[in-house]
Structures are given as structure tokens and as C-alpha cells.
Amino acid sequence: MSKVYSVPLEKIIDFHKLETVYLPKPADEILITTNEINRPGIVLTGYTDYFDPLRIQILGWTELGFMRNMSDGERERALGYWLGLKPAAAVVTRGLKIPGYFIEACKKYEVPLLKTGDETSPFLASLIAYLNAELAPRVTRHGVLVEVYGEGVLITGESGAGKSEAAIELIKRGHRLIADDAVEIRKISDKTLMGNSPSNIRHFVELRGIGIIDARRLFGMGAVKPSEKIDMVIQLEAWDSTKAYDRLGLDNEYANILDVKIPVMTVPITPGRNLAVIVETAAMNNRQKKMGYNAAKDLMTSLGMENVEPVDKEVEIWKN
């Protein structure tokens, strides 16, 4: 069974600068466990099938106007249908004035009531994006994550392979560090992985022979970034003269991380190879592929070998 993550309502209030109208208990004790939200229009009519009380409820002009046009008895029954199911929280948007009967109903059923000045649709989008990130499935793996020319590059390999040294060289060349040693990877959508560093080691880099350095203090704020989407993986491994390495880049290797396919390039390490330049070139090439151009396919076409089909292959980037 997959682990269920939660985020305290207090963090949501702070991040979105929400006004607290009523809380039945401290906001840090109220946990939100789903990234889905709800607008309670149909529930106010009495249809409560499939209602999920774990969702945050959003009310705008439509919902408040619907309640305002009800008789006192209809309104009391409608609020009872809805709030009696104990939804996680209710948020009124657009800075609308909240009627007293609604505040009293929230107090009666002990439902947190919040308010924002944001318009309904932008607030919905912002809240969903925030909850997607906070409640996403995640895993922490060994590696280095850097942003190179706008591409999130996850560098993996055995300890001592040169991952941190490559990251420092990339920082000196104007790129940015997200995480060193431990990368927390979150699945924020079916096709997107976001990487960041655990807070206790954020911005720190370990260099053998030198020790621990703080990249933010040493190179400046422009050298670091809190998080970045993972666009590709570069796997460093010791040169093996018996292994046939891909020289064309025609075949597609990928890693399966949290059920998301991420392109992988395996780079053999030998003395004198400039890993920073290799990572930069790989990032630009990956970006070019996403824009529809593949140099290897273009070469095959010019050689009259356009019928050569690339092979997709899954590779293991971390040893269990």
C-alpha cells in the first residue's frame, strides 16, 4: 500500500496568505491528505453520493448566491447536508463578505472556514499546484541534481565517480545546484518529476579532500535553486573496455522513476574527460530532441539508413 502524505492546514494558510475566519482547533493539527478540491454546489441540493470529505471546499459568487436565494429552512437543511459530512475546510474566494449564517453553521459542525481575496479560478489553480507538490509520491535517492540551460539533470553513479566535482564545475560555468548527495524526487503529475534537496543538507556539497562547502555562501544566491523538474539522467560509470558504449545516441535509454520514464545517458569516466562540458552538451542535446530534432536520426537519413529503428531500453540507475 502506498504511503499517504499530509500537509498541515497551517502551511496552506501561510503559503496562500489566507484569512482565518474560524478554526475548530489549531491549524497545525488539521491535516490535508488529498490534492483534489471541490466546489459544493450540487451537495447543497442534497445530493451527497460520492462526496469526499477529505477535500478542501471552495466557494465563490455562485455558491454564496445560491445560498442567499434560499429560504431560511432550505438553507439550514442545505448546510446540514454539506457541513454535516465534515469537509476538511471551506475557503471563500474573491474577498466576498461571508454571511453570518454560514459562519455559525461552520462553527456548529466544526468545519474550518478561511477567506482569500484571490479570484476563484486562479486560486483553484494555485492551490491544486501546491497540493500536487506537497502531497506527491516521493523517494530519496543518491545523486546530484543541477539545472543546466534550463534542463534539470540528475547525475548518478557510484561514490567517488565525480558527481560533486562536476556539479561545482557547472556552478562555476553559470549553472545552478539543486541537491548534492541526496535528491528527494516527487511525482507531481503522471509525466513530471520534481527534485529538491532535504532541508538539512540544502546547498551543501561534499568534496573529497576538501570537505563540506556551502555553495550558496561560496558562489552566491545565483548558484543555487530550491527545486527543479528532472528532464534527464546522466549515469557516470568507470570505463569498461569490454563494454560497447552507444556512440550514435540513436537508441533510447530511460529510467523508470516512480512510474515516470526519464531519458538516461551513460557516460564512461576516464582521466581527462571534462564532465561539465559533457553534461552541458547532453542537456542541450536533450532539449533539442524535445523540440523535435535528433542529430543521430538526421545522420542516418543522410547516409541512406532512415529505416533504422531506434530501440527503447530501460536501465537501472540505482542498485537495490
Structure report:
The chain is of the alpha/beta class. Helices cover 29% and strands 30% of the residues. It contains nine helices and 18 strands. It has helices at residues 9-16, 61-68, 72-83, 100-109, 120-134, 163-172, 215-219, 275-290, 295-302; strands at 7-8, 19-22, 31-32, 37-38, 56-59, 89-92, 113-115, 138-148, 151-157, 176-189, 192-196, 204-207, 211-214, 227-229, 232-238, 252-257, 260-269, 312-314. The chain has a nine-stranded mixed sheet with strand order 14-11-10-8-9-15-17-16-18. Strand 6, helix 4 and strand 7 (113-115) form a beta-alpha-beta unit. Helix 3 packs parallel to helix 4 and helix 6 crosses helix 8 (275-290). 29% of the residues are buried. The model has no long low-confidence stretch (mean pLDDT 91).
The oligomeric state of the chains shown is single chain
Considering DSSP H and I runs of 4 or more, what fraction of the residues is helical? 25-40%
How many helices in DSSP terms? 9
Strand order of the largest sheet: 14-11-10-8-9-15-17-16-18
Biggest beta sheet summary: 9 strands, mixed
Give the CA-based shape. Answer: elongated
Please report the distance between the alpha carbons of the first and last residues: 20 Å
Order of helices and strands: EHEEEEHHEHEHEEHEEEEHEEEEHHE
Low-confidence stretches: none
